[in-house]
Write a structure and sequence with these properties.
Layout lengths: L2 E5 L3 H15 L2 E5 L2 H10 L4 E5 L7 H10 L6 E5 L4 H9 L4 E4 L4 H28 L10 H13 L6 E4 L6 H10 L8 E5 L8 H6 L16 H5 L3 E5 L6 H13 L1 E3 L6 E3 L3 E6 L3 H6 L5 H7 L2 E4 L10 H15 L6 E2 L1 H9 L6 H15 L4 E2 L6 H7 L7 H24 L4 H7 L5 H10 L6
The chain binds adenosine-5'-triphosphate and magnesium ion (MG).
Adenosine-5'-triphosphate binds next to α7 and α15.
């Protein structure tokens, strides 16, 4: 429901307006009796649009607009005034208001302005997200349907402050996804602190994450901030969260629930506003069943899950990735840029990349660049394991081989999007796709190894 904040020092007038707006616009309308009260409400509630009186004792409408600008509160504002002073209204627009109206005008007009203001705000936000992507700051390459769906999901969850869980095979790009979520989040200008839970010795995990006071344990000569505190209002990236030892899991759960932590050796709680992103290549559901991961912690972190598709499910991204990786690697080696022949590319697109996904491709390319003397990287330079695996079944069947795979990729994506559209309801999805029954859909899902994560 759309929430409107109505700020007017004249209580009876505010009530009348609120009543009309509720009735006409079906809004959730809150009222504030002063500028200061309105600013408090803007800071703590989600307000879609504010209707603001200009003349008020204390902080007047202009004061509110100024404070909003200083605090970067971007809620659209419609000012209304009873004095009919046109100059002041123009001034208010210059100070950042979206529109102005006279108190004497019918409420329908206010509703129309509110709708316009909210729509404009929505479009601006959308443009900002797209621009940030188009800015080419994202290191995440790929335009396959699976990758486009992932980028879409990233843009949707990034602005929300809740935890995000990124799942995906080793080398599939989980860290790049985490960086993109951070880049598109409200705390984008703050720090991105990455902690690899697998790389920390068990005795040090808690102090690394939550910090410690001086003398908290032997060797703690000075007090130290943990990663949570270092991330501030930015992002804490907990890589390989499945490796977190069980006492640290319990403590992490408490911190996420209370949004505060106590350093080791201290009893003073410190607020932790950082957004948490966790990544894993393990099946955490299975880890829970095996008693290695806390179910309550999983429920805390998996509200928003981003699944990074393995490279073999998006082979149409291979040419782009190859082009980019070849260019970057040649540059790094201080070499003239080489190019990959169509047959060699064909082999790279027919391989499964099960071992290490994009990282495996990156390493293969590095070896190919070194192996090729001339400017062209041919099939003979393709690593033997890739070449053997990609060997066509019949002579000249290479192109067909890739075609079959790309077709499978497209088919898989069609099924997954349809399932997502129907919230994984099998019968409805089967119906939507025009399949005979749910059994036919299940058969296709099994063939493509599609399951809900
Ligand atoms: N979509 C992509 N576009 C460009 N480069 C990518 C992409 N995905 C992965 N890479 C590159 O592949 C390598 C592995 O990516 P990354 O470290 O993000 O994977 P990961 O899923 O975190 O792996 P691990 O599970 O081993 O930690 C990096 O060099 C990264 O830059
Ligand atoms: Mg990683």
């Amino acid at each position: 429901m759309t929430t409107i904040l109505l700020c007017d020092d004249n209580a009876s007038l505010a009530e009348q307006y609120a009543y009309d707006l509720r009735r006409l616009g079906d809004y959730d309308v809150r009222t504030a009796a002063s500028g200061a009260e309105a600013l408090d409400a803007l800071a703590s509630d989600t307000v879609d649009c504010m209707v603001l009186d200009l003349e008020m004792p204390g902080t007047d409408g202009f004061g509110v607009l100024r404070a909003m600008r200083d605090r970067r509160i971007e809620t659209p504002v419609i000012v209304y005034t009873g004095t009919g002073n046109f100059d002041r209204c123009v001034q208010a627009i210059k100070a950042g208001a979206y529109a102005f109206i006279d108190k004497a005008e019918p409420v329908e007009r206010v509703v129309r302005e509110i709708e316009n203001a909210i729509e404009r705000r929505r479009i601006l936000e959308e443009v900002a997200v797209l621009r940030r992507y188009a800015d080419d700051e994202s290191a995440l390459l790929g335009a396959s349907p699976a990758m486009r769906a992932l980028k879409d999901a990233i843009a949707r969850v990034a602005p929300v402050p809740s935890p995000v869980l990124i799942t995906g095979e080793s080398g599939s790009g989980k860290e790049l996804v985490a960086r993109d979520v951070h880049r598109l989040s409200a705390g984008a200008r703050e720090s991105f602190v990455a902690v690899n839970c697998a790389a920390l010795p068990e005795q040090l995990v808690e102090s690394e994450l939550f910090g410690h006071e001086r003398g908290a344990f032997t060797g703690a000569a000075t007090a130290r901030k943990g990663a949570f505190e270092s991330a501030g209002r930015g992002t804490l990236f907990l890589d390989e969260i499945g490796e977190l030892p069980s006492p640290a899991q319990a403590k992490l759960l408490r911190v996420l629930e209370e949004r505060a932590l106590t350093r080791l050796g201290s009893s003073r709680p410190v607020p932790v506003p950082a957004r948490v992103i966790a990544a894993t290549n393990r099946d955490l559901e299975q880890e829970v069943r095996d008693g290695r991961f806390r179910r309550d912690l999983l429920f805390r972190i998996n509200v928003h899950t981003l699944r990074v598709p393995p490279l073999r499910e998006r082979l149409s991204d291979v040419p782009d990735l190859v082009g980019h990786l070849v260019a970057r690697t040649c540059e790094r080696f201080g070499m003239r840029r080489k190019r990959v022949s169509p047959d060699a590319l064909e082999m790279l697109m027919a391989y499964e990349w099960r071992l290490n996904n994009v990282r495996e491709l990156r390493n293969a390319i590095e070896r190919m660049i070194i192996a090729a003397d001339g400017d062209v990287i041919g099939p003979e330079h393709v690593p033997s394991e890739v070449r053997d695996d990609a060997a066509p079944q019949a002579p000249n069947a290479g192109g067909e081989h890739t075609f079959v795979r790309l077709k499978a990729e497209a088919e898989r994506q069609i099924i997954v999007s349809a399932l997502e559209r129907h919230d994984w309801h099998i019968t409805r999805t089967a119906h939507d796709l025009g399949l005979a029954d749910h059994a036919s859909l299940l058969k296709i899902m099994r063939r493509h190894r599609i399951s809900r994560e």
